[in-house]
Design brief:
By secondary structure, the protein is mostly beta strands. The chain has one domain: Sandwich (Jelly Rolls). 3% of the residues lie in helices and 39% in strands. Strands 2, 3, 6, 7, 9, 10, 11, 12 and 16 form a 9-stranded antiparallel sheet that branches. An 8-stranded antiparallel sheet has the order 1-15-14-13-8-17-5-4, with no helix packed on it. Strand 2 and strand 3 form a beta hairpin. The longest helix is centred in the first third of the chain and has 4 residues. The radius of gyration is 18 Å and the shape is globular. The termini are far apart.
């Protein structure tokens, strides 16, 4: 694992709303890439780093509006989330209800407020996994009124907006930081409609954000993987938005670079997503498992907002 320090100024850009038939995903804004500034990344094993379970610093405290020394619920609206932890037993990890989350819950080193006010998620690769998964997670799952909430494509426009950074990655370099998941209606195994994954390349000491989309909920449907943004090193903040319209237009945007596709909204589970209950997830879903408790991922959120519009 490689903790690194660095900063960049960034500006969120509202994506252009267009539909692209899903023969493949289509980039709508120039070539992938971006400018960055800051220190040259330096490698180091997080198991020996004093920063492994801590936030990346106080540099942006004054302009973030976030407060250190308080639970995450004092800085973020957690009334629409439920938390899965990497503690517990395989197939039955510990979970935290919306009611507990919104009443000041924190559990270092897995979930807590960093020194810069960020909401910190930490997940070791030897953590407990959920039923049907092979990787552990410290991850939020969407709720409404304190209960698990699932919505349908035709119910309106659904949006998830976040500002975050990745501080530590597992040996694979891969962490899913946001997704739209399904509940497995009609005997279909519950799988993500789309995942946004941070991929760190140790050779170049930088990372990229890729979208992994399943064209249909059918088990035979394979993921379409498409990069959205490159040159995003560890400890550099970035913005993302995952948006799905009632017409099936899916737009995943990272730092103003949108990637769009039109999904099938029919109720035929072999082809479309119309019958599937969907929900947002966000956090630190490491894409690795193993026996090492010191190999982990750490993600820090500076904003996280769900919207459901008509």
């Amino acid at each position: 694992m490689v903790p690194v320090n660095g900063r960049i100024d960034y500006n969120a850009v509202i994506p252009r709303t267009v539909g692209v038939a899903l023969v493949g995903l289509a980039m709508l804004a120039g070539a992938c890439g971006g400018n960055q500034s800051g220190e040259t990344p330096a490698a180091g094993d997080a198991s020996t780093s004093s920063q492994a379970h801590h936030d990346s610093g106080e540099a942006d405290l004054l302009d973030s509006g976030l407060r250190p020394g308080v639970p995450p619920s004092s800085n973020f609206d957690l009334t629409v989330w439920y938390l899965t932890l990497p503690t517990g037993t395989a197939g039955s990890p510990d979970t935290v209800s919306t009611t507990v989350l919104e009443n000041g819950y924190a559990k270092p080193p897995y979930f807590y407020t960093g020194e810069d006010g960020s909401m910190v998620f930490w997940c070791p690769i030897d953590g407990a996994i959920t039923m049907g998964s092979v990787f552990p997670r410290t991850e939020l799952r969407e709720t409404k009124g304190g209960s698990l909430f699932n919505w349908f494509v035709d119910a309106g426009t659904a949006k998830l907006d976040a500002t975050l950074l990745v501080h530590v990655v597992p040996d694979t370099g891969k962490i899913v930081v946001g997704q739209i998941h399904d509940v497995g209606t009609g005997g279909i195994h519950d799988e993500p409609l789309v995942e946004l994954e941070y991929d760190y390349d140790a050779a170049t000491a930088t990372g990229s954000l890729v979208a992994m989309l399943r064209p249909a909920p059918s088990p035979a449907s394979s993921e379409v993987v498409t990069p959205i943004a490159t040159d995003v090193p560890l400890d550099q903040r970035f913005d993302y938005q995952i948006l799905l319209s009632p017409a099936g237009v899916l737009i995943v945007t990272v730092n103003g670079r949108p990637l769009a596709a039109t999904i099938d909204t029919s109720t035929d589970n072999d082809a479309g997503w119309g019958a599937q209950g969907l929900y947002f997830k966000a956090g630190d879903y490491v894409q690795e498992n193993g026996d090492a408790s010191t190999v982990a991922g750490q993600v820090q959120f500076y904003s996280l907002v769900i919207q459901h519009l008509p």
